[in-house]
Amino acid sequence: MASSRFLLPVTISTVSLGIGSWLGIHYEKKNKCVATCDKVWNLPTANCAVSTTTKSPVAIGNVGEIMKYGYPSLTNLKKHGDFVLSYDRRNRIPNWVFEHLTAQKVAYNDVIDRENCQFFEDNDVHVYFRSTNADYYKSGYDRGHMAAAANHRTSIETMQQTFFLSNVAPQVGAGFNRDIWCDLEKYVRKLTKKYKNLYVCTGPLYLPRQERDGKQYVKYEVIGRNHVAVPTHFFKVILCETDKGEFDVESFVIPNAAQPEKAKLNLYRFSIESIERASGLLLFDKIPREFFRNINRIK
């Protein structure tokens, strides 16, 4: 793993060339979070909760609050517990996952333990378009939550639903999922102490890089019998709403690779427009951009 870290700056610089000036990549990593970072990655099949698949906005429970400020897209929408996602049937991972977070939802509860949760396939996804745990067995990748388990501590049932494999994507373990990505998830939970509401959109990216022939290519690995796609990067965009109804926005893009230990989260900040162009999504489109009080203000 150490050798890959030395190669990382070169990799990131080529990616930056591939996507132009609106997306370059830096690095980071911090404390280790040995949460549920399994090295076998999976996708949808459900055993422990009820979800819904539809081609238009789902009107179930608290979906109206979660998606209050707009849907990034309307493809294969599903509702799980306290989050909403769009499922990518071709790549067998989410297009995006949306959460509404508050201090109460993320408050620590020692009775609700993720060690009691297991990853499940999502039976609401057609068998042609879902993967199994076997796809990720000895793949070298963690089953990376898009909606983090620790963000949903109101009940064991709510936390368990984050283990649906339709909420999961293959992530590099050491240096990424268990480190920098975990740090970002912790940072998001920390923001709930400052803001009344957080609206968080998380998802994969497949970014081009320049090869030796001077041309740019989008290349990504697939794993398992079902060819589950391994994203080149992941994004997270956080809309922070104050008690006065004001909005701050923070947005991040991190390569799906081991990151240097001493890099800072601020190095991974990118504009919302860059993420929208790279992902094909529109984020928080119900709020005019001029209404955002601060965008990626370094604190």
UniProtKB/TrEMBL annotation:
Pfam families: Endonuclease_NS
Top-level taxon in the UniProt lineage: Eukaryota
Cell membrane listed as a keyword: no
Residues making up the signal peptide according to the UniProt record: 1-18
Species of the source: Saccoglossus kowalevskii (Acorn worm)
Top EC class for this record: hydrolase
EC number(s) given by UniProt: 3.1.30.-
Domain DNA/RNA non-specific endonuclease/pyrophosphatase/phosphodiesterase: 79-290
Domain ENPP1-3/EXOG-like endonuclease/phosphodiesterase residue range list: 80-290
Co-factor requirement: Mg(2+)
Protein name: Endonuclease
InterPro entries: DNA/RNA_endonuclease_AS, DNA/RNA_non-sp_Endonuclease_sf, Endo_G_ENPP1-like_dom, ENPP1-3/EXOG-like_nuc-like, His-Me_finger_sf, Non-specific_endonuclease
Keywords attached to this entry: Endonuclease, Hydrolase, Magnesium, Metal-binding, Nuclease, Signal
Classification of source organism: Eukaryota, Metazoa, Hemichordata, Enteropneusta, Harrimaniidae
Family of the protein in this entry: Belongs to the DNA/RNA non-specific endonuclease family.
PROSITE patterns, per database record: NUCLEASE_NON_SPEC
